[in-house]
Specification:
- By secondary structure, the protein is an alpha+beta fold.
- It has two domains: 38 residues; 53 residues, IHF-like DNA-binding proteins (HU Protein, Chain A, Irregular), CATH 4.10.520.10.
- A hairpin with a 3-residue loop joins strand 1 and strand 2.
- It is elongated and about 55 Å long.
Length: 93
């Protein structure tokens, strides 16, 4: 499902005009992104949780040349699936 499809589904299910549904979806996503940027955890019951994980720097290798390269430490968003979603996906046919 794309963001556009989500907006259309919200509009259809709620009767909101497309513009209002788009505003709601953008507000939710922006709020989640802002919370993650601040280092907060985002939990949506029944779906899962998002948090930011810190990854240490390491020495990797360029696959073409084989030469070692330094990979800088980084922070990346991480999603952990909730129990209800796991069960829904596992039983879906």
């Amino acid at each position: 499902m794309t963001k556009t499809e989500l907006i259309e589904a919200l509009s259809k299910d709620t009767g909101f005009p497309i513009r209002k549904a788009e505003e709601v979806v953008k507000t939710v996503f922006n709020s989640m992104a802002t919370a993650l940027t601040k280092g907060d955890r985002v939990e949506i019951r029944g779906l899962g949780s998002f948090k930011v994980k810190d990854y240490d720097g390491y020495t990797g290798h360029n696959p073409k040349t084989g030469k070692p390269i330094k990979v800088k430490p980084k922070k990346l968003p991480f999603f952990k699936c909730g129990k209800e979603l796991k069960e829904m996906v596992d039983t879906y046919k």
